[in-house]
Design a protein that fits this description.
11 helices; 77% helix; MetI-like fold
Length: 231
């Protein structure tokens, strides 16, 4: 218990003094995980809508793959991405390995099944006649998607929270493809692993507290948006 209090004091000290290293790592964490979540939304929401509203051969298999992806260990996804982008891999010429772009790609693959799966559940909860009614009223495909998304807004916000929470807290994929390079690819989760391996438990706990606070702040904003929608 004393170690936790020491970590809390260290977290307050780091924030109060405006620690440059902490600021750099925290901003990089938000940048990487935020970009990955936005990309996952761009693909996962339309894909989830299609899976929820259309019937085609292989749909059940794709849904099973999406559900499997929601529980896929991040380190496995990191390993697959690393094999693809390492110099001897098929995309080695792009020089992505041990870069922030590689981390975004890995986290995007982690978050997309989450977003798609929650979107499927949210859209399926709406009346099945809604898209046909909107089409009858003259709405095109993009307009229909937008209006249905507004009706399923609560579920989509949950999808965003699930996707962001999955990537901002993962460590295996980020360390595998990013390399945990100081000043380049180190984020809060990999920094915690580094400080723990050095035996600096106080700073590791402090970074963990700061990571939890950041995740809480993002989810608090999304939860407030959900409650406004309910009202």
């Amino acid at each position: 218990m004393e170690a936790i209090w020491d970590g809390l004091r260290e977290a307050i000290r780091l924030i109060a003094t405006g620690d440059a290293t902490l600021r750099e790592v925290a901003l990089r964490t938000i940048l990487v995980s935020g970009c990955a979540t936005l990309l996952a939304m761009a693909l996962g929401v339309p894909a989830g809508y299609v899976l929820a509203r259309t019937r085609f051969p292989g749909r059940t298999v794709i849904l099973a793959l999406v559900n499997t992806g929601m529980g896929m260990p991040p380190v496995v996804i990191g390993l697959v991405v690393w094999l693809l982008i390492v110099r001897s891999g098929p995309f080695g010429g792009l020089e992505l390995v041990y870069t922030k772009r590689a981390m975004v790609i890995a986290q995007f693959l982690i978050a997309t099944p989450m977003v798609a799966g929650f979107t499927v559940a949210a859209v399926q909860s709406l009346p099945r006649e809604l898209p046909d009614l909107l089409a009858t009223l003259g709405a095109g495909r993009l307009r229909t998607l937008w209006l249905v998304s507004r009706e399923a807004q609560l579920g989509l916000l949950a999808a965003v929270m699930a996707g962001f929470g999955a990537v901002v807290s993962e460590v295996g994929a980020s360390m595998t493809v990013g390399g945990n390079l100081q000043g380049s690819t180190r984020v809060l989760t990999t920094a915690i692993v580094t400080e723990t391996s050095r035996g600096d438990n106080e700073r590791a706990i402090a970074l963990g507290i700061i990571l939890l606070a950041m995740a809480f702040a993002v989810n608090l904003l999304l939860t407030m948006a959900q409650h406004r929608r309910v009202r």
